[in-house]
Amino acid sequence: MLIEVEHWSGDGNRFIIVDNRKNEINNQWNMLLNKLCRRNNLSDAEGLLVLLEINKKNSICIYDFYNPDGSIGVMCGNGAKCAVRHAVLTENLSYNKIELILNDCSYKSKLLDNNRVALEFPLYKELRFIDDWTYVYVGSHHVIIDACYLVKSIDDFYQFDLIKFANEYLNLYRNKIGINNINLSLAYFINDQSNIYLRTYENGVFHETQACATGAISTAIAFWKKKYY
Ligand SMILES: N[C@@H](CCC[C@H](N)C(=O)O)C(=O)O
């Protein structure tokens, strides 16, 4: 069977989108994920978005999101932005008010200028300060580590072996929080610029990705709550 797929990128976070509104693909997602989301070359994806339905009259689009390991990534901010833009292009939805239903959760969104997508998030569902790191839940689970404990400069920050660190410490964070599917973000805050530089090791991808929207939101919340700015 020939399956048409589209490659999308949300800020460098890469996804495959499949239109399954005719329900032609049944329970073959694991096969597709294996073929399309391996990390062998640059075109490999970090998640799969499956279009289930677009209701043009009410500007509603419904997608499922899968991580490359086959697990359901409940919320993926960059994937959600791609889904909204994909729905607009597919069915010419009204730009001002689009409801996205992603993995059964509803988000309000709209299209801004230059094809940017705005997505409304609840503030956060859970926040915990544990030792010198922070756990934030915004639909996906994030551990935020302040890089000032690990590196001394922005160059060191980008040289830091995030994958080795994740392999060594992920289980510790999982055990402390009691949740398995955790994303790990290393955040470097530059005070006089009010900038936070971020690197994220994603659950379900088990690798560093180019960008992670819920990681960015969680980090902003963690630093704001710690009164960094
Ligand atoms: N890339 C994401 C987060 C995706 C979800 C993650 N893989 C998980 O399972 O928690 C984003 O842009 O938010």
Per CATH, which architecture of the largest domain? Answer: Roll
Q: At the first level of CATH, what is the class of the largest domain? A: Alpha Beta
Q: Number of helical runs?
A: 5
* Rg for CA atoms: 18 Å
Q: Can you list the ligands bound to this structure?
A: ligand LBFN2T5F
* Domains, number: 2
CATH topology of the largest domain: Diaminopimelate Epimerase, Chain A, domain 1
What percent of residues adopt helix (DSSP H or I)? 25-40%
Portion in beta strands: 25-35%
SSE string: EEHEEHEEEEEEHHEEEH
Number of beta strands: 13
Largest sheet: 7 strands, mixed
Q: Strand arrangement, largest sheet?
A: 1-2-3-4-5-6-7
Mean pLDDT: 90
Sheet/helix structural class = alpha+beta
| Shape verdict | globular
CATH superfamily of the largest domain: Diaminopimelate Epimerase, Chain A, domain 1
Distance between the termini: 54 Å
| Unreliable residue stretches | none
Walk me through what this model shows.
There is one protein chain. The protein has five helices and 13 strands. The radius of gyration is 18 Å and the shape is globular. The protein folds into two domains: 6-119, Roll (Diaminopimelate Epimerase, Chain A, domain 1), CATH 3.10.310; 126-225, Diaminopimelate Epimerase, Chain A, domain 1 (Roll). A seven-stranded mixed sheet has the order 1-2-3-4-5-6-7, with helices on both faces. A six-stranded mixed sheet has the order 8-9-10-11-12-13. Helices cover 25% and strands 34% of the residues. A hairpin with a 2-residue loop joins strand 5 (98-102) and strand 6. The protein is α+β, with helices and mostly antiparallel strands and 229 residues long. Bound molecules: the ligand N[C@@H](CCC[C@H](N)C(=O)O)C(=O)O. Keywords: Isomerase. This is Diaminopimelate epimerase. It holds the Pfam family DAP_epimerase.
